[in-house]
């Protein structure tokens, strides 16, 4: 079983990172400046995941007190405030998670509760995203100190009503296929592009293969 010390460290990991929250909001390809070494470390392609979104710019998932913003706060500031990274590393962590009453909430709860925490750790990203866009998780990379995600972003279906400048809050739950203590993780990265996951994953595989071959072309 995970130790109490391990669970306590998770609260320090669940910090609000404004930069990554804004990275998902623009209509252009974007990425943060810190990433694990692309050709080394652990990687899971097309990992199991579950997403929720909220058009009201309110928090979707949290532990402890529900995050709030001051009345009259503009959308940019609300997105920055709600941007969040956290880990769910055992059943106690999962039980402590609250989920807003949004479409798919029951599925997110089932995703958390059905995870085998002896073999996996759930990584949670809460960001802002343009209302007319959606995204598909391509892969996740992680090490003892870093975690990095990569998404393919594209327009939502034509029958989905949206406004170009409006934003939603988006949460993605990601099963990392390893049980580990995330207390040492202190660096996060995320990239989003207009290509496909197939292309992005193949590009990473080739880089990793070149690294395994000692850089041979």
Compact summary:
Helices cover 25% and strands 32% of the residues.
Task: Present the secondary structure layout.
Blueprint: H1 4-13, H2 18-23, E1 30-31, E2 42-45, E3 49-54, E4 61-63, H3 75-82, E5 84-88, H4 91-96, E6 97-99, H5 105-113, E7 121-130, E8 133-142, E9 146-155, E10 167-176, E11 187-193, H6 197-212
InterPro entries: TAT_signal
Region (Disordered): 185-217
Structure notes:
- Strand 8 and strand 9 form a beta hairpin.
- The model is unreliable at 1-37 (pLDDT under 50).
- The strands form 3 sheets. The chain has a 5-stranded mixed beta sheet, covered by helices on one side. The chain has a 4-stranded antiparallel beta sheet with strand order 3-10-7-5. Strands 4-6 form a two-stranded antiparallel ribbon.
- The termini are far apart.
- The chain has one domain.
- It has helices at 4-13, 18-23, 75-82, 91-96, 105-113, 197-212; strands at 30-31, 42-45, 49-54, 61-63, 84-88, 97-99, 121-130, 133-142, 146-155, 167-176, 187-193.
- The protein has 6 helices and 11 strands.
- The radius of gyration is 17 Å and the shape is globular.
- By secondary structure, it is an alpha+beta fold.
């Amino acid at each position: 079983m995970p130790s109490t010390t391990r669970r306590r460290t998770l609260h320090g990991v669940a910090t609000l990172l404004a930069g990554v929250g804004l990275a998902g909001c623009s209509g252009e390809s974007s990425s943060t400046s810190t990433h694990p070494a692309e050709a080394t470390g652990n990687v899971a392609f097309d990992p199991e995941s579950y997403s929720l979104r909220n058009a009201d710019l309110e928090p979707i998932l949290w532990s402890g007190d529900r995050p709030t913003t001051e009345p009259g706060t503009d959308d940019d500031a609300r997105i920055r405030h709600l941007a969040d990274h956290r880990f769910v590393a055992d059943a106690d962590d999962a039980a402590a998670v609250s989920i807003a009453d949004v479409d798919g909430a029951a599925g997110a709860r089932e995703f958390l509760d059905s995870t085998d925490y002896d073999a996996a750790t759930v990584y949670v990203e809460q960001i802002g995203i343009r209302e007319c866009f959606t995204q598909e998780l391509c892969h996740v990379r992680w090490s003892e100190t870093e975690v990095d995600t990569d998404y393919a972003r594209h327009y939502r279906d034509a029958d989905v009503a949206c406004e170009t400048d409006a934003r939603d809050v988006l949460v993605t739950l990601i099963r990392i296929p390893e049980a580990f203590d995330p207390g040492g993780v202190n660096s996060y990265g995320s990239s989003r592009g207009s290509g496909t996951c197939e292309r992005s994953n193949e590009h990473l595989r080739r880089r990793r293969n070149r690294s395994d071959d000692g850089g041979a072309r």
